[in-house]
Amino acid sequence: MAEETCALCHGTGWTIVEKDGLSGAQRCNCALEERSAALLRRARIPSNYRQDHFDNFSDRGSADLRTIQGMLLRYCQDFPAGEPPGLLLIGEPGSGKTHLAVAVLHRLLEQGHECVFVDYQNLLERIRAGYDPLSGESPRAAYEEALEAEVLLLDDLGAHRVTDWVEDTVTSIITYRCNERKPVIATTNLPDAEMGGTLIERLPDGAPARYDIKTSLVEKIGMRARSRLFEMCRIIRMPRVGDYRVAARR
Ligand SMILES: Nc1ncnc2c1ncn2[C@@H]1O[C@H](COP(=O)(O)OP(=O)(O)OP(=O)(O)O)[C@@H](O)[C@H]1O
Ligand SMILES: [Mg+2]
Ligand SMILES: [Zn+2]
After folding, report:
1. What predicted TM-score, i.e. pTM, was given to this entire model?
2. Distance, CA 1 to ligand 3 centroid (Å)?
3. N or C: which end of the chain has fewer CB within 10 A?
């Protein structure tokens, strides 16, 4: 605890600074660090992403990845002033979307912003369980957190079976946050036709007559949620760098 260790403020969280002959109180660094640490705990970043930062993200020799990284660093510097307020990272599995989104989250947490990581699939399950009186969680807690968190990281958007309920739920979360100008940082590997994402892809086995029809973002979250998401987010299309997980194993 800082209360016992900080020699600068003797645990008060404040230091006295002299400026132009006047003395005033200033928040001690230890208090800021403690705030960041508390925010980090509450952000609930899953353990397999906890090490994801900008400084361990490789550009893999890709100029596009370097550009994206630079853009995201500026986004963090300008936060919360930038426009539009959110980010949507679209790209193939293993291209580094979650790594970059979590790197942004770590920066924003260090800057003192309240951020929450949620896995899309898990969020929907928790919201549904919120309606179940037998679940331990207070009713609607997960839903309210998704609405009210200062910054919401929605990881793997669209990775859930589509139902009317899912579409309505994601639309209401995104609409609310859009109306309140609360940033959403989302990742998805679903293609978006207007973003140049391909909806039809040849299967890797090379059989020329067989095609894999990919489900699009619109089909999974609905037109209204997609439209608002595009309005409130900078769209970042990841380059086709291949799956890092596969490359790392070689
Ligand atoms: N450019 C990179 N430099 C360093 N590590 C990377 C890079 N890209 C990906 N990784 C690592 O590879 C793994 C997969 O990356 P990540 O989870 O970010 O992929 P993703 O694009 O979110 O994939 P998915 O669509 O499957 O969720 C992670 O462990 C991540 O840290
Ligand atoms: Mg991911
Ligand atoms: Zn102190």
Report:
1. 0.87
2. 10
3. C
